[in-house]
Amino acid sequence: MRKHGVTKLKVTTRASITYTISGMSTFVAVQWMVLPAFSQLEQEEARSDVIRVKELLNSELQTIASFARHYSLSNDVHNFLQGEAPQYPELNIHTQPWRNVDIDLMFFARDSGELVWGKVVDPKTGDEKVLHERTEPLTSRGRSFLRRNSKLGEVRGIVEGKQGLFLAVLQPVYKADGSGL
Predict the structure, then answer these.
(1) pLDDT digits (tens, 9 = 90+) for 81-113
(2) Which letter, b or e, does each residue of 36-46 get, where b requires 16 or more Cβ atoms within 10 Å of its Cβ?
(3) What does the DSSP 8-state code read for residue 145?
(4) How many angstroms separate the first and last alpha carbons of the chain?
């Protein structure tokens, strides 16, 4: 009977050692082989996602920039900013094309930062709100993107506002012949 107990103890000990070694081997294999491969796969997927988002944002910025360029090389817009055609926005700037490409805001400002005209379209309701009647100068409170020492070309990117992030394109306004900034 005693011999049977010793044999049982040996078998149990050997099984425990075997299971422990097997468990440790599995743990080591997972830590050294599987997890690094999985981590690399996750990093590659994250890079791929970032590239897709970047391409999408660049495409959206290009669309917005085309609208900005349309208005930036215009004698009429230039004259409006000089105070010579105050009726220009109401007669010529219609928001339906904005809605077709999800543009929600357009404004015209002078070099000084004075907001001359602006309109926002609520993307949910389609309601239009005029900005220039109740907006402080764009150069106030640290908004220095309109202050510059030299002539400005197109500026585009992501801007953080109170309501979150938004895409923005700033374009100087010239006459159709390229003069008159």
Answers:
(1) 888 888 988 888 888 888 788 888 888 887 777
(2) eeeeeeeeeee
(3) G
(4) 106
